[in-house]
Each structure stands twice: as C-alpha cells, then as structure tokens.
Amino acid sequence: MSLNIVRNHWYDYSQIDALLKKYSNNQQDYLVADAITKDNLQSIQSINSVLNIISSHPTHTTVVIPINLGNIINRVWAGEHWVGLVIIRIDGSFKAIYADSLAGKLDNALPDLKQILINQNILNIDEIVDIAQQTNDYDCGPWTVLNLDSIARVGTLPQFKNNNFKRRNNN
Questions:
Q1: Which tens digit of pLDDT belongs to each residue from 63-87?
Q2: Which of 41, 43, 44, 71 gives 36 a disulfide partner, CB atoms 3.0 to 4.6 angstroms apart?
C-alpha cells in the first residue's frame, strides 16, 4: 500500500478521518472512532462508546482511534503529533495496541489514557515502540493512518520505510 502525502504538510483531523474511512472501506472492514487529544476528558467517553459498540456489534471486532498529542483551543485542533490506538475484541475481552511513528511510549505520551484503558478492564495493552518510522516533522499523520490500518488488519506495522511514500508538491 502507498499513500500520497503532501510535502511539508501537517495533516489535520478531517484529513486523518477521511483517509481512515477510505482505507477501512467506509468502515466495513473496521470502525473508525473520532480523534481524541491527550488533554481531552472526552477520551473517557470515546473509549466507553467504542467498547459499547464493538461489544455488541456482531461483525465489527476492531476500532481504530487517531490521537493527537496536542489539544483543542477555541474549537480548533492545536496539534503536535498524531499517534494511534487500535482496540480489538477477542473472545469477549479487549486488547489495545498503541503505535507511534516516532517510537514514543504510551506511558510518556498518554499516561491518563493507559489508566483509562485499565479502568475499562483492558489489561492487554501492547505498544509497538521498537521502530521509528518517521524521519521528519510532518509525516506523523500518514504514518498514523498506515499504522492503524495495518494493525487493524494484520496486528502489526506496515513493512516499509519512509521512502516508500509517494510524494507530491502542494501546488
């Protein structure tokens, strides 16, 4: 899979959401939750609603959640970095997989989210932190989309490096 990215362009929430919905086959392959931020108390409600949806849905067992490590100021995303979380229902219990294209750890980036997951009885929390994929300061959005899609489909990161992105100028 390749993804066209705009050089020197930071992806906002609407672009991340549109790409995830496209790659999820319009949410037929897996569900796409609304993005959350690290400082947003709404993340508790988002996790609760995600768990309710995949607990009761007969066919959807996986949901992807894009997370921005910034926050919302005056209803505008003040982004820093995109990371992702995938929650999978397996035999009645849940597993969460966290991925950061800069190889950041969940405890450092989102300690409150880890506690929220534990409070929701999601005790199986994996972190994919052994590989830094991103080599610049603007590809976190595309990497988050690719990572979430790949983890939702096969449980691991995509098997290619940053130079496999097809680049286009923003003209």
A1: 999 998 876 666 556 678 899 999 9
A2: 43
The residue among 72, 71, 49, 53 whose CA lies nearest residue 62 is: 53
Q: Tell me the β-bridge partners of 83.
A: 67
Residue 54, exposed/middle/buried by CB under 10 A (0-12, 13-18, 19+)?
A: buried
What are the distances in angstroms from CA 21 to CA 14, 54, 89? 11, 17, 20
* Residue 97, amino acid: I
Enclosing domain of residue 131 = 4-168
Q: Indicate which CATH number applies to the domain containing 149.
A: 3.40.395.10
**pLDDT digit string (tens) for 119-166?**
888 989 998 866 668 888 788 888 899 899 999 998 777 665 554 444
Cβ density class 35-49: b for 16+ within 10 Å, e for less: bbbbebeebeebbee
What dihedral angle (degrees, nearest 10) is formed by the CA atoms of 46, 44, 121, 50?
-10
pTM: 0.82
User: What is the per-residue burial (b if ≥16 Cβ within 10 Å, else e) of 15-31?
Assistant: ebbebbeebbeeeeebb
